[in-house]
Design a protein that fits this description.
The chain has 271 residues and is of the alpha/beta class. The protein has helices at 11-28, 49-58, 75-81, 129-139, 158-168, 215-223; strands spanning 2-6, 8-9, 33-37, 62-64, 85-86, 100-104, 110-117, 148-154, 174-178, 188-189, 195-197, 202-205, 237-246, 253-261.
Length: 271
């Protein structure tokens, strides 16, 4: 199976880049299943229902959220109505929506998608992500209930993301980090067969401060004072993510490559 994961979509520029480029990538790379992290797609903070629909229309099979899951208030109801939205498993026991679901890929394969929030350096104390993921992977073992599984580890600390990768190695097809918006150069297949990357990066303008226009972040770093709201940068956007090929029988990864399409970080991608 051919899987594509795209990192955090940032603002209008990120949404437009996905709409323009994803349909062609689906055809050119013969993708079976596409997952997108959309938690910054609406003004850089959260995801609205309308913008979620646009990502699905562009070719996403599933959209994951993150710590900004419900910054756009209509998502509280929308994620209950739209099963293709995945919010973090450990966000809150009373949060609407689901943190893990099984979906059907274009070829009929069953694919588990789950997301979890880390604890290190995050603004609020979330429940233990490791026990949350463990319960889901026990319920949906590779090669049994599902032919592939993808875990979106949404957190600050690279060490926590790497720990989750090794914790899930051999039990999930893909473990990929999101949230910090800067792609790491460590896409690999772990010893027990799982594809891994510490952070997929963002689908946004890299001539920025993690996707935001530079002036206000710089002001805050230099003076310690806020003057204006952060606004997403709108110049050339790079689609950043991870391409993975899996074995349908075992669910293990056979190939993994970083994806950088357009903008400042463009590279060729899968051939």
């Amino acid at each position: 199976m051919r899987l594509l994961f795209l990192g955090d979509i940032v603002g209008r520029g990120g949404r437009q880049a996905v709409a323009q480029r994803l349909p062609k990538l689906r055809d050119d790379w013969r993708l079976d299943f596409v997952v997108i992290n959309g938690e910054n797609a609406t003004g850089g903070m959260g995801l609205s229902g309308n913008h979620a629909r646009a990502l699905f229309e562009a070719g996403a099979d599933v959209v994951t959220l993150g710590d900004h899951a419900f910054d756009q208030k209509d998502m509280l109801q929308f994620c209950e109505q739209e099963p293709r939205i995945i919010r973090p498993l450990n966000f809150s026991k009373v949060a609407p929506g689901k943190g893990a679901r099984v979906f059907t890929a274009r070829g009929g394969q069953k694919v588990l998608v789950a997301q979890v929030l880390g604890q290190v350096f995050m603004k609020r104390p979330f429940d233990d992500p490791f026990s949350a993921v463990d319960a889901v992977l026990r319920q949906y073992p590779l090669g049994g209930m599902v032919q592939a599984s993808l875990i979106d580890m949404h957190c600050e600390a690279t060490s926590e993301k790497m720990a989750m990768g090794h914790f899930c190695d051999g039990r999930a097809s893909v473990i990929v980090g999101t949230h910090t918006h800067v792609p790491t150069a460590d896409a690999m297949i772990l010893p027990k067969g799982s594809a891994y990357q510490t952070d997929a990066g963002m689908c946004g303008d890299y001539n920025s401060v993690i996707g935001m226009k530079k002036d206000e972040p710089l002001r805050r770093f230099i003076t310690g004072m806020a003057k204006e709201r952060f606004e997403p940068a709108l110049a050339d956007v790079t689609l950043s993510g991870l391409y993975v090929e899996t074995d349908d029988r075992t669910g293990k990864a056979k190939r993994v490559e970083q994806v950088r399409q357009g903008g400042l970080l463009s590279s060729a991608g899968p051939a």
